[in-house]
Every structure is written in C-alpha cells, then in structure tokens.
Amino acid sequence: MPENLNLVPFVSVEAMMDLVLSIGTERFLRELAGYIEADFHRWESFDKTPRVASHSRDGVIELMPTSDGRLYGFKYVNGHPKNTKSGRQTVTAFGVLSDVDSGYPVLLSEMTILTALRTAATSAVAARHLARSNARCMALIGNGAQSEFQALAFKALLGVDRLRLHDIDPAASRRCRDNLSALGFSIEICGSAEQAVEGADIVTTVTADKQNATILTDNMIGAGMHINAVGGDCPGKTELHRDILLRSDIFVEFPPQTRIEGEIQQLDKDHPVTELWRVIAGSAPGRTRADQITLFDSVGFATEDFSALRYVRDKLSETGRFDTLDLLADPDEPRDLFGMLLRRQALTQQAAAPQ
C-alpha cells in the first residue's frame, strides 16, 4: 500500500477484472457476501440516509454515502436504460473509501463491475435467509448486464444449478446462456415470463426499463416461492403486480429508501415490511413456512457498497491489483499550499530554461 500522503490506491476496471479473476468469481462472491452479512449484523453502527438522487427524463444520477464512524464511503452511480442504444452501459459507478479521523481517502475504485457483484451477493445473502433451503431452480427474468452475476451468486451461496431465462430480447437470453454454459448450470431459454417461472423455486426480476411495468402477475406466483425483485430502484419504476405484494412477506434494506424507490411504493406508507438486517441478526423471523411467499424488495443500499469497498481494500495488499493516483496535495508544510504552487512554478521555469 502507498505510504506517501499524496498517493491513493486506485482500482481501475482492468485491475478489478484481474482482482476478480485472480480470486475466482464464485469465491469472490462468497467472500464479498461475508462482508455484506457482517455489516448487516452491525447495522445500527452505520449512518443511514436515502441516496441523494438527481432524476432526469432518461435516467438518474445518485450519490450513496454511509459511515461506521471509522471509515466513510460513498458511491457515484447512474441508471440510464437508453444508454445501450448508443453502446453505453445502463449503470456505471465509482466509489471512495476514506479514513474518518483524517478525512483522507484510502481507496478510489471503479464500481460498475463491483456494483454488479455486490448486488448479486446481497440478493443471495437475502435468499439464504428467505428462500426454501432446498431451492435449486431459479427463473431469471431480464437477461441484461446483471443476470450472470445473479446466477453465479445464487450458485455460490445456495447451490442453485438450474436456470430458466427470459428476456424480451431473445439475443440477451442466448448471450446469458452462452456466458454461463461452462459454469455448472442446466439452462433453458423460455419464450415468456409465465413459462420461465414454471417449476422455479426462486424468481429473480432484473429488468432495466425506467417505468412501472408488470413483469410478474399474481397468478404466476405459487406457494413457497421466493421473489428477488432487483430491477425496481427509483420512483415510478416497478416490476411486480400489486397483488403479489399483498400476498407476500416483504423484506427490505432501508424502509425510508425502499418506500420511495422499491416495489412497495405501490402500497400504503404503513404497509408492514421487515428489515433484512433484523433477520440476519436474529431479531426478526425470515421464512417460517414452506408455503410462505417471501419477497426481497431490493433497491441497493449504501452499506452494501461500503462492504464491497472494504472487501476490495482488504484484498489489495494480498493481490497487488491496484495503481496509485497522485490525488491529494501534500505540501512540505501543511499550511503552505500556495507555497507548494510557487515551488512547482519555479521547477517548471527551471526545466524550461536554456541549458
């Protein structure tokens, strides 16, 4: 790790890919899930606030901050579903982890890939507490950039090895199948969402359109299913018919945020939900019956990004997969910032002078 105060470890996209591959994707997901679950256990020690969102016609840009009193973290993330039409990602992100005592950043990292990994790991952590213990078949509706990560996380943490894929774009399902074909799954591409959920123990919805949609209707959801609703993450964007919510026991990350952005924006403001951290900590029940319908109304919360940044930082000295950025001014005398500028000017003039 760098010792000079001006240098901050930086994990680029290339370095993140190398980090994941050097660890192994499924091991990375399992270990990351451990960090996420550990931070849910100490939920009450975190500063918590709904993310700060700037909405536009075609998308949203958000800041997601939190702190445990020792470290501070935030993520910058966007969501623009139309981006794929111009060859861009729907979601991009980067994040910072800082030391609270000094305010100095200790890590700057890409988080486009890392967000996909942490979202999938969080889904699987929730399902480990909420799905039936013998769940092995998952319907995956919406086969975009998040889909393979979800599949691998559920395989790594729950042993899911059968996938039923559906997307309104058949090419997306074929790509997802091809990407996962050598990774231990039995995969069927389905012509409709109704077909995909037949026989599934877990249903994951992860669509991108920024609108109220009905990906699942009430008649499609049978007793004992666990629903992992990932796609809804902003006001006016949902995936499930309201009747499904009324039949389900609903689990959320942070109610003040989920009531604005999640599936439960369709319900009364006082509709009962259970916070996931309480289930993980053992202070509230998760699944209590085999025929219970459980719903994880996932919108993503800042503590999960904090956990992901913590995990990556802990891996840096072990793997060396990072660069350093000259990000912070570090004058010889802390109060002489202008003098640092003058000395730089002198060095520049000296270098330009004829020899």
Task: Write up what this structure looks like.
This is Ornithine cyclodeaminase. It holds the Pfam family OCD_Mu_crystall. InterPro entries: NAD(P)-bd_dom_sf, ODC_Mu_crystall, ODC_N. It is a single chain. A hairpin with a 4-residue loop joins strand 2 (52-55) and strand 3 (60-67). The protein has 2 domains: 7-113 and 304-342, ornithine cyclodeaminase, domain 1; 126-300, Rossmann fold, CATH 3.40.50.720. It is built from 11 helices and 17 strands. The longest helix is centred in the middle third of the chain and has 19 residues, at 112-130. It is of the alpha/beta class. The radius of gyration is 22 Å and the shape is elongated.
Provide keyphrases for this structure.
355 residues; alpha/beta; ornithine cyclodeaminase, domain 1; Rossmann fold; eight-stranded parallel β-sheet; elongated; ODC_N; Ornithine cyclodeaminase; NAD; ODC_Mu_crystall
CATH superfamily of the largest domain: NAD(P)-binding Rossmann-like Domain
**Tally of separate domains:** 2
Strand order of the largest sheet: 9-8-7-10-12-16-14-15
Mean pLDDT: 95
Gyration radius (Cα, Å) is: 22 Å
Low-confidence stretches: none
Roughly how many Å apart are the termini? 38 Å
Order of helices and strands: EHHEEEEEHEHEHEHEEEEHEHEHEHEH
Amount of helix: 25-40%
CATH class of the largest domain: Alpha Beta
Shape descriptor reads: elongated
Strands, total number: 17
What is the subunit organization of this protein? single chain
Within the CATH hierarchy, at the fold level, what is the topology of the largest domain? Rossmann fold
CATH architecture of the largest domain: 3-Layer(aba) Sandwich
Helix/strand-derived category reads alpha/beta
Summed up, the helix count is 11
Largest sheet, described in full? 8 strands, parallel
Percent in strands: 15-25%
Protein name: Ornithine cyclodeaminase
Keywords: NAD
InterPro entries: NAD(P)-bd_dom_sf, ODC_Mu_crystall, ODC_N
Family: Belongs to the ornithine cyclodeaminase/mu-crystallin family.
